[in-house]
């Protein structure tokens, strides 16, 4: 009995909330329609305008525009209040923990009478629809609450596994991941610092070839700058310089490619893998000035070494020889 009572009150709240949504939508539509139609001259105004002179008319029109602004503000205020009420009502709703069950209605399909069969199909459609709404709203809820800084592509896994977001991980995990990557490569050293609080900045030194600054947000790579080995990593104030580009064209090109790689390897849900893949890719620049292009077999092309590394094979290519 108690369960039924709670279900009943839930349904009532849901009805009230849905009504709230409907009236809010109608208010918003009304507002936009009023704005789109613009100010209306009513008959009184027209009579006044006929009687009064041009200068007075100007004053009159300015006062009528004031009136309209007030009217709009009033409607907006109303919308704001309704939205607040709606949010309170939504807060009082409890989401269903289990999916809707067809229950005894499933037995209707066994009835051979064609009149009642139609009812079964309607019920089935209704069930599918409810299931879809449930699924979409779950995904929407995750997206809206999970990641306010989402990248352009959002992968929704088919197994409905909750997506892990890389930007909200504890500092220790970031340190451990970077430490593990540091041990993977002999020639590449990574130094973690936190000049801006929680988020780590990794200073990379790759042999005597290049230095890079990788800015992380959690375990999500936000920004990469690659500079020559002899260019400073710190700015004049002794802080890590995150933005100044290299003065050399080669490293400007590598920076561009590193940012492309950062986006390519970014995969929400596989926290460690994307960071590890990126650093493995960056490590392949060890042969920036010694490796030959995979296509033309030359060191230089247009006075530039092979500045591109293929994402999967890590083969060097000139910009013009890219596959
Ligand atoms: Zn080439």
Give a structural overview:
The protein is α+β, with helices and mostly antiparallel strands and 323 residues long. The protein has 3 domains: 1-94; 96-146; 171-288, no CATH class. It is built from 7 helices and 6 strands. The strands form 2 sheets. Strands 1-2-3-4 form a 4-stranded antiparallel sheet. Strands 5-6 form a two-stranded antiparallel ribbon. The termini are far apart. It binds zinc ion. Residues 293, 295-296, 298, 301, 318, 321 line the site of zinc ion (ZN).
The helical percent reads 40-55%
Low-confidence stretches: none
Structural class: alpha+beta
Question: How many β-strand runs?
Answer: 6
Largest sheet: 4 strands, antiparallel
What is the 3D shape?
elongated
For the record, the count of structural domains works out to 3
Structure ligands = zinc ion
Helix tally equals: 7
Instruction: Give the radius of gyration.
Output: 32 Å
Strand order of the largest sheet: 1-2-3-4
Q: SSE string, helix = H, strand = E?
A: HHHHHEEEEHHEE
Short description:
The chain contains 7 helices and 6 strands, in the order H-H-H-H-H-E-E-E-E-H-H-E-E.
């Amino acid at each position: 009995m108690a369960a039924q009572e709670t279900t009943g009150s839930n349904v009532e709240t849901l009805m009230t909330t849905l009504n709230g949504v409907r009236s809010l939508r109608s208010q918003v539509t009304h507002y936009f329609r009023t704005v789109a139609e613009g100010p209306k001259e009513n008959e009184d105004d027209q009579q006044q305008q006929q009687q009064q002179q041009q200068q007075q008319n100007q004053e009159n029109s300015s006062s009528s525009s004031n009136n309209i602004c007030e009217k709009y503000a009033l409607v907006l205020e109303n919308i704001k209040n309704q939205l607040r009420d709606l949010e309170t009502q939504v807060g009082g709703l409890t989401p269903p923990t289990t999916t809707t069950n067809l229950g005894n209605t499933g037995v209707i399909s066994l009835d051979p009478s064609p009149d009642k069969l139609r009812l079964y199909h309607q019920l089935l459609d209704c069930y599918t629809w409810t299931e879809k709404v449930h699924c979409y709203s779950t995904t929407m809820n995750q997206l809206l609450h999970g990641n306010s800084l989402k990248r352009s592509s959002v992968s929704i896994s088919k197994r409905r596994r909750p997506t892990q977001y890389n930007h909200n991980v504890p500092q220790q995990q970031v340190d451990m991941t970077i430490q593990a990557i540091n041990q993977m490569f002999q020639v590449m050293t990574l130094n973690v610092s936190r000049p801006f609080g929680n988020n780590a900045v990794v200073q990379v030194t790759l042999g005597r070839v290049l230095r890079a600054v990788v800015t992380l947000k959690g375990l999500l790579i936000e920004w990469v700058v690659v500079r020559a080995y002899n260019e400073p990593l710190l700015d004049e104030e002794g802080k890590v310089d995150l933005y100044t580009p290299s003065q050399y064209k080669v490293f400007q090109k590598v920076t561009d490619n590193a940012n492309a790689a950062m986006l390519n390897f970014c995969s929400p849900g596989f926290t460690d893998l994307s960071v590890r893949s990126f650093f493995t890719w960056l490590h392949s620049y060890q042969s920036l000035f010694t490796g030959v292009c995979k296509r033309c077999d030359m060191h230089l092309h247009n006075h530039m070494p092979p500045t591109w590394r293929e994402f999967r094979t890590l083969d060097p290519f000139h910009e013009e020889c890219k596959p």
